Amino acid sequence: MRILGLSAFYHDSAAALIEDGVIVAAAQEERFSRRKHDPRFPSSAVEYCLSEAGCTLAGIDHVVFYEKPFLKFERLLESYFATAPRGFSSFRLAIPLWIKDKLFQKKMLQDELQKLSGGDAWNASLLFTEHHQSHAASAFYPSPFKSAAVLTMDGVGEWCTTSLGHGSGNNFEIRKELHFPHSLGLLYSAFTYYTGFRVNSGEYKVMGLAPYGTPRYVQKILDNLIHVNEDGTFHMDQKYFNYTSGLTMTSKAFDRLFGGPPRKPEDELTQREMDLAASVQKVTEMIVLRLAKSIQADTGERNLCLAGGVALNCVANGKLLREGIFDNIWIQPAAGDAGGALGAALSAWHQFHGKPRTVREDGGDTMAGSYLGPSFEQTDIESRLQAIGAKFDVIAEPDMIERTADALADGHAVGWMQGRMEFGPRALGGRSILGDPRSPNMQRTLNLKVKYRESFRPFAPSVKRENVSDWFDHDSDSPYMLIVGDVAEDRRLEMTDEEQSLFGIDKLNVARSSIPAITHVDYSARIQTVHHETNPRYWDLLDAFEKRTDCPVVINTSFNVRGEPIVCTPEDAFRCFMGTGLDYLAVGNCVLTKDQQDPALAQDYKNQFKLD
Fold this sequence. Notes:
Blueprint: E1 2-7, E2 14-19, E3 22-28, H1 30-33, H2 43-53, E4 62-65, H3 69-83, H4 88-100, H5 105-114, E5 126-128, H6 131-140, E6 147-153, E7 160-168, E8 171-179, H7 184-194, H8 203-209, H9 218-225, E9 226-228, E10 234-236, H10 252-258, H11 271-299, E11 303-307, H12 314-323, E12 328-331, H13 337-352, H14 378-387, E13 393-394, H15 397-409, E14 414-417, E15 431-435, H16 442-450, E16 460-464, H17 468-471, E17 483-486, H18 497-500, E18 524-530, H19 536-549, E19 553-558, H20 570-578, E20 584-587, E21 590-593
Parallel strand pairs: 1-4, 4-5, 6-11, 11-12, 14-20, 16-18
Antiparallel strand pairs: 1-2, 2-3, 6-7, 7-8, 9-10, 13-21, 14-15, 15-19, 16-19, 17-18, 20-21
C-alpha cells in the first residue's frame, strides 16, 4: 500500500511517500521551485516522490493532508468575532481568500492532484489529519522507541499550539492540548518580529543572537506577557500581541513595555535586541523543561519524541537532554510544517489502517538519516554540468574524497553535493558547504563572502560519531543537528580580562577554542554526529580530514546563500558555486575549482534572492 502525505498553503509545503509503512521519499517544494518556504501546492515534490516509488498517482492508495481546513476556518472566525471590531482590517484581507480558495481546500487539492501524472486514474481517496496529530505521528512512528512520551509545540495548527501525548507500538493518543491564542511558538515569533527578523523564517536567528545578550527582560516577560504554571502550561496576555486580529505580531503595549518600536529589518543590531533574544530564549527553555517534566510524570516514560517548529530550537533541546528528565530524546529532523506531510502519511498507515509498527533492533530510527530527497547518477551529473558550461575533472570516489580533504585542510570553502538531498531545514552532508573549523577567519569568511548573511550567525560542526565526546561535552547521537552542546573544556581557550569585558557583537572575533569557527560566544555548538552506516561518503571525508589535521570535525552549513533554498540539482550547486566565494565544488565524482571556470558564468548571487 502506498500513501502520499501533503503539507501546503501556509509555509514549507512538502510531500512524503510511504510504501507498506516504509518511508520511500520526502522533500520540500522550495527545493524544486527555488522559492524559499514555498507555500504552494507541492506538485514538483509530489512528482519526485512518485518517481522514487516508480509509480504515478494512479498507484497511490491514499493522499493525506496534514491538517483540517474547516477547523482552521472555525478558529479564524471565532478569533475575529472575539476581537471585533479591532481586527476588521485583517478580517477584510483574510476572509475573501478563505471563501475563494481555502474553505474549499478539498476540491482544490483534488483538482491539483488530478493534474499530476496518473491523476485521471487516481481513486480520489483523500484523507485529513489534524495538524498536531501529523506532528506527533512524524515524531513517534519513525523514532527508535517502542513506547515514548510525545511533545509537539509550534505556532498554531487548527486550534492546538502544544500537545502532550503517548505512543506505544502502533497506538498513539494525545492526552492534553493547549489552544490558540496561547502559543510558545507565537511568543517566540513575536520577539522574532520585534527584533527585526521575518516570522516563520528568522526564529533561528533569534536563537543564534541570544548568546550575545543578557536575559535581563525575563522577569518582565513573565510578569506581563505570559503566566507560566509549574506544569509548563501557560496563559498569554493578548493586549501585548496583535496576531489574533491584526497584521503584526506585537501591539503598541508591547512597544511601551520594551521601550520603543520594533527594529526595522537590516538596521544595525544593538545590545537591546541581543538582550531581548536572550530573554525569550530563557523563557522558552523554562517552559519546555516544565512541559517535559509534566509529560514524564503523566506517562512514566523514559523516552521522549519531539516535533513542531519549537522542536527546531536546538538550544532548548540541548538543555532538555542535559536535564536528564528523560533518558533518551528523539527529534523529527523535519520538525516544522514540512514534516507534517510525513506524519500525515504515517498516521494513515498506523492509525487509520491499524497497521503494526516495526522498531529497529539496532536502536536506530527509520528516517534513513533524513536523506530522502533526489540523488543523481554520475553520468547525469556530468551531462548536466557540461550543458551549463562547467569545467570539471571526473575522478574515482577515493581520490575525490582525498582531494576535498586537501582543499579543506588548505583553508578553502568547499561546496559538497553528494547522494540524496536532506528532508528538513538542515544540511547534513548531502547538500553542504564545508570549511576548516580550526581557522579563526572561516566563520566570518563564510558568513560575509559565501552565505552573504549576518556576521553574528554561528556555524555547526559535523563530527564523526565515535569522536564526539573527545571534542564536546556530549556523548549521544545527534545526527540531525538538533542538539546544542558545549565544546569540551580541554579544547577551550582561556579569555583575557580585556576579551571578557567585551559586549555583544564585539565578542565575535575572539577565538574561544581550538576549533573557533564552530564555537559560539558561549562555548556552545550545534552538533551533528556523522554515522558511517547512514552517510559513508561524508564519514570518509571527515576521516580523511582527520588524518591530515588530527581533527575529525568540519564546519557544515547549508549549501545556499541567504534567502535561497538549499540546492537540489547539480545546476543549482554550480550556480551557487559561481555566485559566491566558494573555492571548490565536489558533485558526485566531479571536482570543480573556481579558477578553471569561465568568468562569464559568474553571477551576482548576493542580490538575487529576497532576504530571509
